[in-house]
Specification:
By secondary structure, this protein is α+β, with helices and mostly antiparallel strands. It folds into three domains: 165 residues, no CATH class; 73 residues; 123 residues, Heat Shock Protein 90. It has a five-stranded mixed β-sheet with strand order 1-2-3-5-4. A hairpin with a 2-residue loop joins strand 2 and strand 3. The chain is elongated, with a radius of gyration of 32 Å. The two termini are 32 Å apart.
Length: 402
């Protein structure tokens, strides 16, 4: 899963926001500032050349197929230049700025969606602006600093400090992470695609189950009852008709059971009526491996969070039944610091991975879409521990709470 950065933007710059203290004229920080100002020229030349070559070329070729991808690649490259500039400012100017959150390209489905996400990246565009305006500033600081080394030596520390403070302000303004709102908008736009895909997959599953299961049985039932009706109308009621009616009765019971199972798969009644503890105990009882369920919850979370928690545990227990060869398993659910935590453990063969084809990746994406976390620890030979974390949201409907 992707680590989230708690910084809220330019304000989170660490100790360098304190007013500068008085210091010796030519101490180590002063020499670092002088070095930074002298290096400004080659670095700004590199950045300006990159911007003009890659981005302007990409913009000029937007009428062709390669234009927009080239522009997007240029913005991603600009992010890397911004990282180098933040490292330089950290080493020579003492400016400590958090790294921006990475673009969630790996969670964005579709080439066009990934392309659009890169093209509208505010961090990339601010870095482009930074590199564009740095060339004249780099020339100015290089000339003034180099001249002062030979002409204005007594006052060079003060000149260097003033110019370096301008550099600090530029770095904070243009190379700081996006504010929290920008970051969350980018994540939510990416997660929206995951939610839509998940909902579409669930609808296809329901349609398939209805078509292949209950619907097919009900069609057969209708045909059987139709034949029995014809025989009764013709006065040919015999043992064959009785057998047909008995078979139809069996089909009705099977169809009802399949509809109950389907309804349970959409949202089980026990979860609505009695909460996670009872619902997880019910799903654990259907696991082929003995499962101990412990739920330490004083109140119930919001219905949506409760449902995600239930289906997460349900799918993990299905994986244990099918793939783990375990002899025992456990499910623990508790609340901590405004989060709902779930831990599913088994003593099976291990080796579970997010890309292992057992639905783990889908679970991780579903939790990530609601600002959750999903961690799998499954060394070869076992045991396997899966930890899921969801935001706790209070339940709005009073009935059934507690």
């Amino acid at each position: 899963m992707t680590a989230r950065i708690s910084s809220t933007g330019p304000a989170a710059t660490g100790a360098d926001d304190r007013p500068p203290r008085a210091r010796l004229a030519y101490d180590l920080p002063t020499w670092k500032e002088i070095t930074h100002l002298l290096v400004n020229l080659p670095v700004s030349l590199l950045g300006f050349t990159y911007v003009m070559t890659v981005l302007v070329t990409g913009a000029a070729l937007t009428i062709t197929v390669v234009g927009l991808p080239l522009l997007a690649a240029g913005l991603l490259g600009a992010r890397k230049l911004g990282r180098l500039e933040r490292a330089r400012a950290r080493a020579l100017l003492g400016v400590r700025i958090d790294e921006p959150s990475p673009l969630p390209l790996h969670r964005t489905k579709g080439a066009f969606n990934r392309l659009w996400l890169a093209l509208k990246d505010p961090v990339g565009w601010r870095t482009v602006l930074y590199d564009f305006i740095r060339l004249p500033w780099g020339i100015l600081t290089f000339v003034v600093t180099l001249t002062s080394l030979f002409v204005l030596w007594p006052v060079l520390p003060f000149i260097a400090r003033g110019l370096a403070n301008v550099d600090r302000a530029m770095v904070r303004a243009l190379l700081s992470p996006s504010d929290e709102l920008e970051r969350r908008i980018a994540e939510l736009e990416s997660d929206r695609g995951v939610v839509v895909d998940t909902a579409a997959a669930d609808l296809r599953r329901i349609e398939r189950d209805l078509h292949d299961g209950a619907q097919a049985r009900l069609v057969n039932l209708a045909m059987g009852l139709g034949l029995a009706k014809e025989k009764l109308l013709e006065g040919r009621a015999d043992e064959h008709v009785a057998a047909m009616v008995e078979e139809a009765h069996g089909e009705v019971k099977l169809a009802l059971q399949e509809l109950r199972d389907l309804a349970r798969g959409i949202h089980p009644a026990v979860l609505t009526d009695r909460g996670l503890d009872a619902a997880l105990s019910a799903v654990a009882s259907r696991c082929t491996v003995p499962v101990k369920v412990t739920a330490d919850l004083d109140t119930r979370p919001a219905a949506a969070i409760e449902g995600i928690a239930y289906f997460t545990v349900s799918e993990l227990l299905q994986n244990i039944s099918k793939h783990s060869a375990a002899r025992s398993a456990s499910v623990d659910v508790w609340r901590s610091d405004g989060r709902l935590l779930i831990q599913v453990w088994d003593d099976g063969r291990g080796g579970a991975r997010l890309d292992g084809g057992t639905g783990m990746r889908g679970l991780a994406e579903r939790l990530d879409a609601v600002d959750g976390l999903f961690v799998v620890e499954s060394p070869p030979g076992g045991p396997t521990t899966v930890t899921a974390e969801l935001p706790w949201r209070d339940r709005k409907d009073a009935p059934g709470q507690g």
